[in-house]
Design brief:
By secondary structure, the protein is an alpha+beta fold. The chain is built from 13 helices and 20 strands. Helix 1 crosses helix 8 and helix 7 packs antiparallel against helix 8. This is RRM domain-containing protein. InterPro entries: Nucleotide-bd_a/b_plait_sf, PUF60-like, PUF60_regulator, PUF60_RRM1, PUF60_RRM2, RBD_domain_sf, RRM_dom, RRM_euk-type.
Length: 502
Amino acid sequence: MEQSIRMVLMKQTIAYQQQKNKTFQRHQVLVLMCRVYVGSISFELKEDTIRQSFLPFGPIKSINMSWDPVTQKHKGFAFVEYEIPEAAQLALEQMNGVMIGGRNIKVVGRPSNMPQAQAVIDEIQEEAKQYNRIYVASIHQDLNEEDIKSVFEAFGPIVYCKLAQGPTGNKHKGYGFIEYETAQAANEAIASMNLFDLGGQYLRVGRAITPPNALLGPSTGSNVLPTAAAVAAAAATAKIQAMDAVASNVAALGELENCLSKLTQPAASIPIVAPAQASSLAAPPVIAPPGLALPAAVVPPPGVAIPQKLPNNIIQPALVQPVLSGPVPTNLSQAQISNRSTVAHQQEAMRRAAEAQLKQQEELQKKLLDQNEPQTLQQQENMSIKGQNARHFVMQKLMRKVDSRVVILRNMVGPEDVDESLQDEIQEECSKYGQVERVIIYNERQSEDDENDVIVKIFVEFYETWEAEKARDSLTGRYFGGRMVQASLYDQTLFEHSDFSG
C-alpha cells in the first residue's frame, strides 16, 4: 500500500506539473500575440513618434528599437508590445503600409521562428469564436460604460459592456470589450463604428481574438501540491486500485487452478503407480499398452502425495513436482498438451506485465526528477547560471556576434540591367562559395517624386553562416559590368520579415 501511495503521488505530481506547464505556455503565447514588428522606419524618427502612432489601438507596454552602436542610430525596425492581443491585431490590420516620416512602414505579426506557438494560437482563436465579443479602443476618458453601451446597443442586444479600469480605479485605460447576443450584431458594430468620431477621438473597433479572462495569467501559487490533500487523495486512489487488483488476481488464480486441475487428471490409458520406495503400499501393477514402452521412472502427476520412508521407518507423504526427462508419451491427449502450453503462456504474460510495470515506474521517476528543468519561455529567461565559471560563460555569450546567412550586394547592377536571366546568373556565381537558398532582387525608390531615382539591392541567402562570410569577403571590391560591388552581411531579422530597406 505504501508503494502504491508513492506511485499515485508521483502520477499526481507529474499531472499537476504538466497542467502548470500548459498554463504557462498558453500565457507565453498570449504575450507573444501582443507584439508586432514594425519595419522600414525612417532613421530620423524617434521612439516617441512610433508610440504616438500606435497608441490609439491600445495601451503600449514597451517599444524595443534595435540600435547600431557605431552610427548611434536605430536599425530601421522596432518591436511594439501591447497589453492585450486585440490591440496588436488592430495595429496589424490598420497600420501596415501607412506613411510615417516619408516612408511606408511595414507592420507584420508574430515572428516566424516560433512554429510551436501557432497551434496554441489557433486553439485560443477558436475558443474566441464561441463569443460574440468586439474590442473598442481609443475611448475618450470622459466617457463611461453607460455612454459606450448606449452608443453600441443600437446594433443589437448587449450581454455586457466592460471598460478596463486603471490602477487607481477612477479612470479607464481607454479600451474595453462588448459582447452581443448575436454574431450579426457584432459584425455590424465593427463595420459601422470603426474610425467613428466619438468625443473628438476616432474609435478603433475590431473583433476579439481571445476568450474572456484569457489574460488572467497563470496562478502565482506554489508549485507543490498541498501535502495533506495529496496524501489523502493518493491513499484513497491506491485503495481503489488495490481492490481492483485483488479482484483481477482472484479471477486469474481461478483460471490457473482450473488449468492445473485438468493437468492433474492422468490419461485413462496410462495407469500411474508410485516408485519402488512405496512398494509396501498396495498398488495395482503397471500395464503397458501394446506398442508402448514405459519410461524407467514413472513420474506421478503434480500435487500427488508420495509416501517417503524416514530413517525411523515412519512413512511421511511428500508432494512432488514432475520433471519429465525423455520424450513425452505419444498417447497423451492434445488437451493435456494444450493446457500445459496455456500455463506457460500465462506465466510469460505475467512476467512481461511485471517488467512493463517496472519500466513505467522508472519513467515516472525520471519525469519527476526532470520536472524542475525550465519548460517555458519565462522560466528559461529567468534561469540562473551557477558555478565558478559562470562569469566567464556569461561574458562569452555577451561577446558572441549575431550570425547572418544573408549577403547584400550593392552597386552591382543598375535598374536598366535587371532582366529575367539576372537572378540565375547571380545564383550561379554565388554557388561557388556555398549552397544558395534564394536570391532576391529588390528595387528601392529613393524619393516619391522622381521615379527614376532607384537603386538595386541584391540579397543572397546561403545555407550556412560561413558560406555567407566567404561570399562577402570574395565579392566585395570586385568589378561586375564596370561597377565595383559592395558586399556585406545583412541583418537576419530584417530579412526574415521581408524588410529590405536596411
